[in-house]
Amino acid sequence: xxxxxxxxxxxxxxxxxxxxxxxxxxxxxxxxxxxxxxxxxxxxxxxxxxxxxxxxxxxxxxxxxxxxxxxxxxxxxxxxxxxxxxxxxx
Length: 90
Prior knowledge:
The protein is 28% helix and 34% strand. By secondary structure, the protein is of the alpha+beta class. It has one domain (5-86): SH3 type barrels (Roll), CATH 2.30.30.140. The protein has a five-stranded antiparallel beta sheet with strand order 3-2-1-4-5. The protein is globular, with a radius of gyration of 12 Å. Belongs to the HupF/HypC family. Pfam families: HupF_HypC. InterPro entries: Hydrogenase_HupF/HypC. This is Hydrogenase assembly protein HupF.
């Protein structure tokens, strides 16, 4: 199963303007933010992450609500977090 998971933007990757580090439920990983180039993302912003790409900018309130719902899913969400821990872009 592939989920869209909220992540908080921590920082942009030096020398790779299309990549940023996000934190998803305590798991840090690099994602591609090129699809949101017009959003003027800043550290602290929340984005919806799917298969290594930021698909949309979302509010912190929405992010927290989605994370709470995902945590209730149990094992599918745990599996997705494990996949994030072992994956890498760039």
